[in-house]
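Figure 2 data, in text form.
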Amino acid sequence: MTKKTALLLSFILLKFALQYILISPEYELQRDEFLHLDQAHHLAWGYLSVPPVTSWISYIIYSLGNSIFWIRFFPALFGALTLFVVWKSIEELKGNTFALLLGATSVLFSALLRINGLYQPNSLDVLCWTTFCFILIKYTNTESSKWFYIGMLVLAFGFLNKYNIVFLLVGVFPALLLTNRSAFKNKNFYFSILLFLLLILPNLIWQYNNNFPVYHHMQILAKTQLVNVNRWDFLKDQLFFFIGSLYVILVALYGFLFYPPFKKYRFFFWTLVFTLIVFTYLKAKSYYAIGLYPIYIAFGAVYLETILKSGWKKYLQPVAIAIPILLFIPISKIMFPNKSPEYIANHSETYKKFGLLRWEDGKDHKLPQDYADMLGWKELAHKTDSIYATLPKGERTLILCDNYGQAGAINYYTKNKNITALSFNADYVNWFQLDKKYVNLIRIKELNNEETELEETSPFFEKSYIGGSITNLLAREYGTTIFVFEKAKIDINQRIKTEIEAEKKY
């Protein structure tokens, strides 16, 4: 084993270790993770929330036992592979040991540790962005047409994981037209595009057959979440994702403009500019752009190596490597759920000044939204199990939730194999099984007027009562109430069909 290989393996092992260490066991899974895990039981070429790749990974996780270890493993794996691709990019750019160490350190000690701690499409999205950029480097160096096809394979897989990768293309194509048009004169470029379209065609057909739910999803996102995004905050947040290695990225941008060996890669400079302009205009969430930066770390590390390779400047190399670590240490104390919820609530000012308490509603709360989304789920599932056990056996009971987090959490944590929670929210609207009649209803509702729910629904059942609620004050679902309705006087199945039809009309 060479010295470089040993160093790379050390970084990868450290990456995996940190991904497990930086999440306190007091936290449960995050609401989005529950939805993605449930998709393993409903494999399809598309979903209302995401393309199909996440469901494939969820199926693998389910086959491996569906444990927390494996749920954490895959995003950590994608993060480790991102580090690996940056390492290979540095080698492709003729970087040596210092550049490799600086690049790996910069990628490791960054916001990617947070992104890679959640089972969401984002980790694989960053990997696909980085890999595609690596392929652009390979094509630029060789001008071999095979890289068109390899690049389109990566793009197709990235598209089937998260549509967000389209915005990378929005930045890359005009950048290439501006600085390097040779690719557009190669017929293989256009044949590779046909390959890309062929690979994503099943998902496009699914979108068409389901009335393009991605468009509906983006409309809702724009109205409920992106409307609260401040464009200046978006740009400001870009500085914090790789705060310890920001100087490396800035050096790369300078190099594209003024370092002769980087002239042929100048389109990367304009790719960053065009992509950020589009994201800023659309008021995108800050993390949508995080996949842009790893490849710029590779360029910056290589350029810095040429600057610090001789004379007294070579003594600055350890300092350059230490900066990402030293700046990351204080940030790590607030960036990760490695403190108890109570500790964070009692020290909220520290988190507030970094904007971490601002939720999608544009307001500040006691915990960061992701942390609050990782609490209360076990309590909900346990109480639902207890209530379900009191209902007459042999009578089919519908567990109907307000949102996908509630439904997914109950399905993940329940100890009763007969329980399947559903919702008219997100993908669950397509997963109702109406082959048998429902007799009872367990209604999971977000914090609301309890008397109103009982007044509205009780007349349709012989018996009704409140079975419990989430009591964790710091959970985003605090106050979520479990209503129980027994012996329906109406056809519940018909009501469900009506609600599904209404939901699908958008």
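Caption note: The mean pLDDT is 90.
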